[in-house]
Every structure is written in C-alpha cells, then in structure tokens.
Specification:
Blueprint (H helix, E strand, L loop, with lengths): L9 E8 L5 E7 L7 E7 L4 E6 L9 E6 L5 E6 L14 E3 L2
Antiparallel strand pairs: 1-2, 2-5, 3-4, 3-6, 6-7
Length: 98
C-alpha cells in the first residue's frame, strides 16, 4: 500500500499597517503540516532583518499575523528566504510594496 506524501506549504498573504503605523505580516499555513517560519524583511531605508517565528504560532489556526516591532516602511517580505523548509509552492513566498 502506497502512502500519499504529505503536502507542505506556507506563504504570506499580505503585509499591512494599522492606525498606529505599525506594520504586520499575515501568514497562512496552506497545507495540513505546520512548520516554523523564517522571514526576511527589507525596509525602505536599506535595512534588512531576519525573523524566526516558532511553530507554536499555528496553535491559533491556519492564519497568523505578526506585528513588525521596528519602525520604517517595509518594501519586501520573503518567507523562507534560504529555502530550507519543504514547500510545494514557493511562488507565494514573497510580498513586495507596489
């Protein structure tokens, strides 16, 4: 009997700011298996930060919103920038400011 392989997929669904000018990244677990997330955040001033989010973030369900603690305009967010996690679709791992 062959077992069906598990699907792995996570991606960013959006990045937004609230009325206090705090910015947040919305992540989505698109398959049944959850994993930690690594984010690369690029800012308009040229700065870049790497953030590691624990797998426990998915305890609340398949969507998670993380508020970026640093002030500044976010130009780009990349989920799994080193491509170390299994992912069925890497085309949905990048958000860029329009």
């Amino acid at each position: 009997m062959m077992r069906r392989p598990r699907r792995y997929a996570q991606g960013r669904s959006s990045a937004a700011s609230d009325m206090y000018k705090r910015q947040a990244v919305a992540l989505e677990s698109l398959a049944g298996v959850v994993m930690p997330a690594e984010l690369q955040i690029s800012f308009a001033d040229g700065g870049t930060e790497i953030v590691l989010l624990p797998v426990e973030m998915w305890n609340q369900g398949p969507r998670f919103s993380w508020t970026i603690p640093r002030a500044g305009v976010v130009n780009k967010v990349v989920v799994d920038p080193r491509a170390v996690y299994p992912d069925d679709d890497r085309t949905n791992n990048t958000w860029s400011r329009q």
